[in-house]
Amino acid sequence: MITRKRTKTALLSLVLLALVLTINSIVAAAPSTNVKVKSSSIQLVFDGKTLVLPEGQYIFTVNNSTYVPLRFVSYALQKSVKWDSKTTTVAVAEPSKSETVALKEYLLNATGQTGAKSAKGGNAIAVSPIAAKFTFDGTTKALAKGQSSYMLNGTIYVPLRFVSESVGKVVLWDPVKGQISATTKASEGTEGDTQTGETTEEGTGGVVGGGGTVSTKPTYESITSSAERQLKTLQSACEADLTAIAFNYLGATTAADKEKYIQQGQTKFAACESKFESIMTDTESKLTANGYSTAILAEYRAEYAQSIGEGKAILDSMAN
């Protein structure tokens, strides 16, 4: 049975409202001196697949150290990432089962053409040092003496070597090819895992491939679990976009720019809301078609309504 706690976990940070509310504390923790760098054109290959950075994220060099976006590379290494704004701490850890499913979908969407560059080069950017702390699987890790972490548009950057050593995985850097590559244990020998993930509760235990066609009724848990995975993916997408918009707003120096970012935020909220409704409609259809209660949808909607209401209030306060 899906519990209320599990429902809240799926929707709690749908639009990263907690981060938006505490952005000023993050900015306050960051030293004010920006560092001007030029982005590098680099290829990221993880588990044999080329991954492309989201728009607005880069790879760059500071004092001969290659800096990468911590969240993206951690995801590529099959790790979950959580940010505690109160302590300015980034926690990298092994993902839960539901997070693993979301990670696979995220990385699938980030996969680009083989041989293509993953990051744009030649862009002049100014990154801000940030006094963040880091834990990896519960153990605090510190940057090497003389190194700093940086932030750009809500994304934290750290040295590639720091990520590799802290996660305990071999991440290779080939300066000749301009390629960063790694192989994760999570990708080895797990091809069949997702195939059985939603059918083990059926208990049919029948012979597979016996020549007949068996119509299997999906369980209530499989339908709602699928909905929660989609909500988790929606959460991640909205989180990334709204974080960037929020930081751009805080960095804007003119009224016109501030208004532009407010409009972008409102547009993104509308897109998130539309996608949420699409997930709800599809889930309701499946539950009804199979004779299951749709009461869980009211819980989803209640959590969403609360979150979206707070988010819109924040945008309204920005506009006033």
Automatic annotation (TrEMBL):
The record's keywords, sorted A to Z, are:
Signal
What residue range is the signal peptide?
A: 1-29
The record's SUPFAM superfamilies line, in alphabetical order, gives: Copper amine oxidase, domain N
Compositional bias per record (Gly residues), positions renumbered to this chain: 203-212
Query: Where do the Copper amine oxidase-like N-terminal domain residues begin and end?
Result: 25-91, 146-180
* Residue segments, region Disordered: 182-212
Protein name stated in the entry: Copper amine oxidase-like N-terminal domain-containing protein
Which organism does this sequence originate in? Paenibacillus phyllosphaerae
